[in-house]
Known about the structure:
This protein is α+β, with helices and mostly antiparallel strands. It has 5 domains: 3-112 and 560-567, Uridine Diphospho-n-acetylenolpyruvylglucosamine Reductase, domain 2 (2-Layer Sandwich), CATH 3.30.43.10; 117-292, Uridine Diphospho-n-acetylenolpyruvylglucosamine Reductase, domain 3; 294-413, Alpha-Beta Plaits, CATH 3.30.70; 415-523, 2-Layer Sandwich (Alpha-Beta Plaits), CATH 3.30.70.2740; 576-659, no CATH class. Helix content is 34%, strand content 17%. Strands 14, 15, 16, 17, 18, 19, 20 and 21 form an 8-stranded antiparallel sheet that branches. Strands 5-6-12-8-9 form a 5-stranded antiparallel sheet. Strands 1-2-4-3 form a 4-stranded mixed sheet, with helices on one face. α2 packs antiparallel against α4 (71-84) and α18 packs antiparallel against α19. Bound molecules: ligand 1. The site of ligand 1 has 33 residues, from β3, α6 and β12.
Amino acid sequence: MRQSDERDETAGDRRPDLLAGPPREPAPLLEALKSTVTGEVRSDRLTRALYATDASVYQVVPVAVVLPRSEADVLATIRACGRFGVPLTARGGGTSQAGQCIGPGVILDCSKYFNRVLEIDAAERRARVEPGCVLDALNLALKPHNLQFAPDISTSNRATIGGMVANNSSGTRSVLYGKTIDHVAALRVALVDGTVASFGPLDAGELEARSRRDDLEGACYRMTRQLATEHAGEIDRRYPKILRRVGGYNLDAFVPGRPAIGGDDRFNLAHLLVGSEGTLAVTLEATLRLVEVPRAKVVLVVEFPELLDALAAVPSILVHGPSAVEVVDRYVLDSTRLNPEASRLRDFLQGDPGAILIIELSGDDTAALFPGLDALDADLAARGVGAHRLAVREPAKQARIWKLRTLALGLSMAEKGDAKAVSFVEDTAVAPERLRDFIAEFLAVIARHGTKAGVYAHASVGCLHVRPIVNLKTEEGVRRFEAIANDVAGIVLKYGGAPLGGARRRPGPERLPGVDVRPGALPGVPHAEADVRPESPPQPGQDRRCAPPDREPAPRPGVCHPGGPDDLRLLGRRRPAAGRRALRGGRGVPQDARGDDVPLYTGDAARIGADLATLAALVSEGRLRPIIDRSTAWTDIDQLLEAMAKGQVAGKAVLTVAQS
Ligand SMILES: Cc1cc2nc3c(=O)[nH]c(=O)nc-3n(C[C@H](O)[C@H](O)[C@H](O)COP(=O)(O)OP(=O)(O)OC[C@H]3O[C@@H](n4cnc5c(N)ncnc54)[C@H](O)[C@@H]3O)c2cc1C
C-alpha cells in the first residue's frame, strides 16, 4: 500500500511498469494463483495467444489468465500479483479498440463466471451487477420492468458492465443519455492492496470522515480532492468541453463548482474510476441507474450528395431534440451492395447518396412524436437541407434501417486483401458545430497519406468513426498508420476535440501526442495512478523472482510483440503453408511437437465467436497448429470451428495445440 505522502525518488524503480514484459520465472506466481483461486487459472500457450489480442491492432502476450468465480478470487489474484510484482489487467468482453485489455502480466477475465445480475430494484430504478455481466444480458433481465441501462453501445452482445465502466462507454443515443458515468451510482472495488472499498455519493460530513481515514481508501479521497482543487485551472483549460470525451481520468468531475453528474451533485469517487480503464482499481460490483425504455420512436432519413453537407446540417437538427443523429457515408453504404441480406435493406434509399443522416426522435407516445417529426421535416425542407427526406413512422421499417447501418459497419471492414479498414483514429470527437470542418481536414490527412476511409456514427455528438485503409502487414503500412495517427492528433487539438480512449492503456507508440488530456500531463498527477492503481504494489518482502524485466520494447501495431523466448516460438511469424498443411490434413502429430491440452468451453456463444475468430486467425497465419483430439467426432479443425460457431458442440471440445 502506498500513501501519497510516501512518494520518493526511487518509487518509479520499485514499481513494475504497466507495460513491462512478462515475468522472468512465472512458476511461483502460477503456483500462488492455483492454490488460492477457485476459478480457472490458465497459462497454456493457446489461452495466452487468445488473450494476447482484443479488438485493437495490438498484441501483448500475457503470462497467465485468471477467470475468477467470485470476489474472493479477484482479491486473491490481486494479492498474488502484488506479491510477485506482476501487472494485472482486468478484462470483460475484450472489445476495446485501443489495447485497453491486453497486458504482459495476468489477465483477469470477469466475463465467464463473475457476471451475475445481483439485484433489480424497479421502483428505485437501480440494478446491482457483477462486472462481467454483458450489457444485453442485463437489459434482457430488465425488459419485464420496461427499464434499461441507457448507454447503447454497438458491442452490447459482448461488452460487459466492467468494461463499459472502465471505458466510460456511450452509444448511438449519447446525445440523449450521455455516457456510462451518468448512470453509475456506486462501485464496489478492490484497491491495489487487495482491500475492498465502496465508492458512492457522499454528503459533506461523510466526505470529511472518509478523507480522514488512515488507510488507502482515505488516501484516495484526500488525493483526488487535492489534485482537483490544486489543478482546477489546468483541468478547466485542458479538458475538452464536449460530451464524448472519454480519454483521461475524470478529474473535472471533482473540481469545486462542478456540474451535477446523473442529477446528483454529491462527491462520488466512483466517477474517478469510470473511464480509468482499470488502472486504479478492479470493479467488483456496480450499482447502476436505469431509465425507462422509450415506448415510441420515429425516424427521418435525409440523403445528401456529399458527406460534408450532411455534417454541416447537424447543428440545426439538434435544436429539434433528437435522441440520435447518425451519419453513414457512401463508402460504408456501398459496402452493402454485394451482400444479399444487406442489399435487400437498401430499399428505403431514394437516390445514390454521398451520405445519409438517420435522425431519431423518441418518447412515450408515437402520435405525440408525429408533430415533432413533421416540424423537423418542414424545417429542413424550408432550408433546402438534403436531396431526399423520408419520414419513417412504423417500428418495423425503422428496424430495417438500423439493421442496414449495423450490417454496413461489418461489411465495410471486410475488404479483400491485406489492406483493411483499421480502427486506430476512431472515436475522436469535437463539438458538433465544428464537425464538418474537422472531418474535412481529417479526410485530407488520410488522402495525403495515399489512402481512403469510411466514415459513420454519432454526428449528434461530433464523434465519428473514421477507419483508414491500411496494410499493417508491411512496414510501410505501419509507418503510414503512425503518421496518420500523429497528423490526426494535430487536428483534434486544433479543433478543441478529444482523442479516442485508451490513453492510459494504449500499448503502441502513437499516443496521439499533443492532445494528451491524460492527467499525467498535469504536474504531480502521475502519482494519482501510481498510488492507487492495481498493478503490483511494492510490498515489504516482495518476491521479485517473477518481476518483469526492466525494459521491454513497446509493441507495434500489426507486428508481433513477443513476450519472451517462449512467446517468440508461439507467435513469431511462420510460413503459413506449414501450418495450413497440419490444419487441413489433421493427420498425425510430428515427433517433436509438444502439445498442451486446451479445453475450449462452449457455454457462451458470443464469447466463443470471439475466441474462435482469434484462434482461426492464429491458425491461418501458421502460428498455432491445432491437432484434433482423436476422441472427438471431428477430424478436421475447420469442421470443428464451424460446428462450434453453429452451437452444435455440446460439452467441451479439446484441441491439442502445438507450435508450428
Ligand atoms: C465494432 C465495435 C464497436 C464499438 N462500439 C462502441 C460504441 O458504440 N460505444 C463505445 O463506447 N464503445 C464501443 N466500442 C468499444 C468497446 O466495445 C466498449 O468500450 C466496451 O464497453 C468495452 O467493454 P468490454 O467488456 O469489451 O471491455 P474490455 O475491452 O474487456 O475492457 C475494457 C477496459 O475495461 C477494463 N476492465 C474490464 N473489466 C474490469 C473490471 N472488472 N475492473 C476494472 N477494469 C475492468 C479493462 O482493463 C479495459 O481497460 C466498440 C468496439 C468495437 C470493436
